């Protein structure tokens, strides 16, 4: 599981886990789109995104189609050498 700063996703409430899974499966989404996909209330989604952002799992970007909204996505894991985790191309050939 994803872990940062001693707290990981297993320590979060079920709503935050659901929002994480929605973002994992459906890619970058606005808060409104997350509400529609998860069927959670807007307030619950806001809280879940805040918790996910606090532990560094979610990135918030500008949604260019409507600058009043933000676009949320799962942060790419970073390997110890600074490359993306799980990236086979970053590994040296033997």
TrEMBL record:
InterPro entries from the UniProt entry: WH-like_DNA-bd_sf, WH_DNA-bd_sf
Protein's name in the database: Winged helix-turn-helix domain-containing protein
Stored Pfam families: HTH_24
Family annotation (Gene3D superfamilies): Winged helix-like DNA-binding domain superfamily/Winged helix DNA-binding domain
């Amino acid at each position: 599981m994803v872990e940062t700063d001693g707290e990981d996703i297993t320590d979060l409430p079920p709503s935050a886990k659901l929002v994480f899974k929605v973002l994992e499966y459906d890619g970058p989404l606005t808060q409104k789109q997350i509400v529609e996909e998860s069927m959670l209330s807007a307030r619950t989604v806001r809280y879940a995104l805040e918790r996910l952002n606090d532990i560094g799992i979610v990135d918030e970007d500008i949604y260019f189609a409507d600058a009043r909204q933000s676009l949320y996505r799962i942060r790419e894991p970073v390997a110890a050498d600074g490359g993306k985790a799980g990236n086979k191309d970053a590994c040296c050939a033997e």
